[in-house]
Amino acid sequence: MRLRNRMKLELLSLPGNVRLARIAVAAFASEVDYNVSDLEEIKVAVSEAVSNAITHGYQQKKDGVISLTATLFTDALEIVVQDHGKGIDDLEQAFEPNSSSDPERMGLGFVFMRSFMDKVDVVSEPGQGTTVKLRKKLPDKVQAET
Amino acid sequence: MGLNLKRLGNIMLIEVCGEFDLSAADYCRQEIDQKIRAEGIKDILFDLEKVAFIDSSGLGVILGRYRKAKENGGRMAISNANPRITKILELSGITRLIPVYPTTSQALRFLGRGVG
Ligand SMILES: Nc1ncnc2c1ncn2[C@@H]1O[C@H](COP(=O)(O)OP(=O)(O)OP(=O)(O)O)[C@@H](O)[C@H]1O
Ligand SMILES: [Mg+2]
Questions:
Q1: How far is the CA of A117 from the centre of ligand 1 (A)?
Q2: Architecture label for domain B2-110
């Protein structure tokens, strides 16, 4: 599992940066031959993690800092989204779909992350912040070449 | 992101264009609710033909409008979603609540009245 490439971005917690984050990661990941539907899934997963950092982590505060790191290993793409916001009290509950009490939300963020990526790890400390690590295997062909 | 709101008889036709994510959600929600209130319309059709990207924030806007329409005795349908968007609609469970049609005319037929 050698390191191939890495990108690191720092974003303010502004809604417009959700788009920037997913496009940057998709551009970074296009170095390997993911197909269109893989790239689309990666974009949704990144959108979910960054949107959560903005809406839940920083609760719409506009001066929070979100760090986004994307790393290409020889066998996988790894994306880490970290905020220093509110944190999550109950991770089990956060993973439940439809757990949201907000009628405008379906509680789908983690559901999408988990169905579109091969692995999702969340580390969170109330009052300290949340780190979401997303992992997706590289397309088979690329793995064979490296 | 662009938003087009058109009244077709008793139906509010909502066309969302571009990327339907967190940065579009609040604006869409406000514009749609205001127009629906002003026009006194109950039934809603979301035309997703021009949506290039959607995530849970966009889906939340659709779900929220569905819940409000239902409270007011209205109905809702979705039309014209491309295969990628359709896949996300299915995964989200929205398709179990809101009927999805391949074309706008089929959706309008479902919503029935008021196209004249
Ligand atoms: N970065 C974060 N900081 C604090 N809380 C978070 C964070 N990410 C997720 N959560 C908590 O986990 C819950 C579930 O997140 P998830 O994205 O699955 O659903 P949601 O954001 O509530 O709804 P949706 O994603 O459909 O808009 C959130 O409601 C929130 O309480
Ligand atoms: Mg979310």
A1: 17
A2: 2-Layer Sandwich (3.30)
Using CA atoms, how far apart are residues A133 and A130, in angstroms rounded to an integer?
A: 10
Give the β-pairing of B51-54 and B11-20: parallel
Active-site residue A22, yes or no? no
**Domain A3-145 -> CATH class:** alpha beta
ipTM of the complex, rounded to two decimals: 0.93
The residues spanned by each domain of chain A are 3-145
Cβ of A86 less than 6 Å from ligand 1: yes
Residues A22, A26, A29, A34: is their CA dihedral positive or negative?
A: positive
pTM of the model as a whole: 0.95
Nearest to B57 among A51, A103, A115 (CB): A51
The residues spanned by each domain of chain B are: 2-110
Q: Per-residue pLDDT averaged across B94-109, rounded? A: 96
